Amino acid sequence: xxxxxxxxxxxxxxxVEDALTAQTEVINKANNLSDAEKKDxxxxxxxxxxxxxxxxxxxxxxxxxxxxxxxGVDAIKKIVPTxxxxxxNAANxxxxxxxxxxxxxxxxxxxxxxxxxxxLIKEATDAANxxxxxxxxxxxxxxxxxxxxxGVDA
Length: 154
Hints:
Elements: H1 5-29, H2 35-58, H3 62-77, H4 84-108, H5 114-137, H6 141-153
Helix pairs in contact: 1-2, 1-3, 2-3, 4-5, 4-6, 5-6
C-alpha cells in the first residue's frame, strides 16, 4: 500500500526530530564550547527543524514531504561545533593579520626614525606573542576567540 500524505509527513517530521535530537547531543558533548555557544548552535538547529517542519506541513505530495524532511535533516547536520583547534587557528590568523598590518603601518610612517620603528614593531610583536600564548592555553572556543581579539586590540 502507498503511504498516505499524513504518514509521509509523520515520517518526515520524525526524521527531522531525530536529527535535531542527535545534533543537540553532539553539540552538548562538545567540551570546548561555552554554554552560550552551545545554546546558539542548538537554537540554529532548532530553527532549521522549524523551517523543515513548516515545509513538511505545506507539502501536498508524499515526495514533497519526504524531500522537505530530508532537506531539514541535512540542514541540521550542517550545524556542527567548531573544534577548539579551528578556533585557535582562526584567532592566531587574526593576530598574524593584525601584526602584519601594524608592521606595514609602522614601516610606512615617515615621521619616525628607524630606531623608533624597530621599538614599535617589537612592542607589537610582543603583544602578538602574548596573545598567541593565551590562545594556546585556551580550553574553550570562546576563550580562544577572546584571547585573539585582545591580541588584535593590543
